[in-house]
Fold this sequence. Notes:
Oligomer: single chain
Strand order of the largest sheet: 1-2
Largest sheet: 2 strands, antiparallel
Number of helices: 6
CATH class of the largest domain: Mainly Alpha
Number of domains: 2
Amino acid sequence: MLSIGDLSRRTGVKIPTIRYYEQMGLIDEPERSAGNQRRYTNQQLERLSFIKHARDLGLSIKAVRELTELSAHPEQPCRNAHRIAKEHLASVRARIAKLKRLETELKRIESGCETGHIDNCHVIQALSDHSLCDSEH
Length: 137
């Protein structure tokens, strides 16, 4: 049995986050010791590690909940898990594309001038007037 501090150290998940996941029902409420301290099992450690890894990959709480529910039924086909991963990958790719557009536009704006005064500054002008941008971002 692990204390909440041990669980936190072993998973890298902060104690308030562990409590939050308990409140959300993502991990089961732990047993309590005679001194009313939380005591976690290895199964709860594994579940928390699963949740942390999923969150590190950027999956939403909703997706994590669905994946943890799916993992409780190992006999079921994994198409729903693949659907969740595929949807998340599409979302990540869309964000990357948007970030690339932002990078291109910021490079263009920034390269407009480096000398002079603020009243003629290309950065300030471009931020003040979106029509000066080359693309939608």
